[in-house]
Predict the structure.
Amino acid sequence: MTGKNATFAHRNNKSEEKLLMDKETLRNHIVNSARLKRIIDLLIMNQKLTRPRWYVRLLAPLYQQRAWSAKIYGSVRMDTPPYRRFVIGKRSVVESYSCVNNAVGDVVIGDHTRIGLHSTVIGPVSIGSHVNLAQGVTVSALNHNFSETDKRIDEQGITTRQIVIEDDVWIGTNATVLAGVRIGSHSVIAAGAVVTHDIPPHSLAAGVPAQVKRKI
């Protein structure tokens, strides 16, 4: 690399780092303002209609971290307020009529990963690279509290536990992955399974609750 090219690359890296720092500063500012968070939630997350608002589709790429080669179809409901991170890597796809929600935790998707039709991802969730979610898969790190019998469930708040799906995982149609689970690399989750506990790498898991049937 010539001196001129090296200088240009260095300046470009510096610009990208500054942009990321500016986004992080803004994100922290919003997180620390309950009033601002409520306003943003009302603007971004439609409480009545499932169709994503047009201005959310227009503005979201400005505060999300999307690889240029990633694809999110226009019918996807992106409940991704800017006070949390949403990251999607190169050549990854979120297919039609899915829902991605990072309001209670970051959602990070690696490279060459596909989120299938009608799937739901609720953070905090980390999905690796070369992961395939089939149709109708639910990955939810959120639970509603319900232990206080003198209060309505919607008054008791929520709890979250991060989900981690490592690289090279295939999750079958209509499977559900619940809060706090880690699925190891090169594993397969059968269609309709409900994953309630960790699945080690190189495993085939099936059933309700999901159990490891054999090693791969």
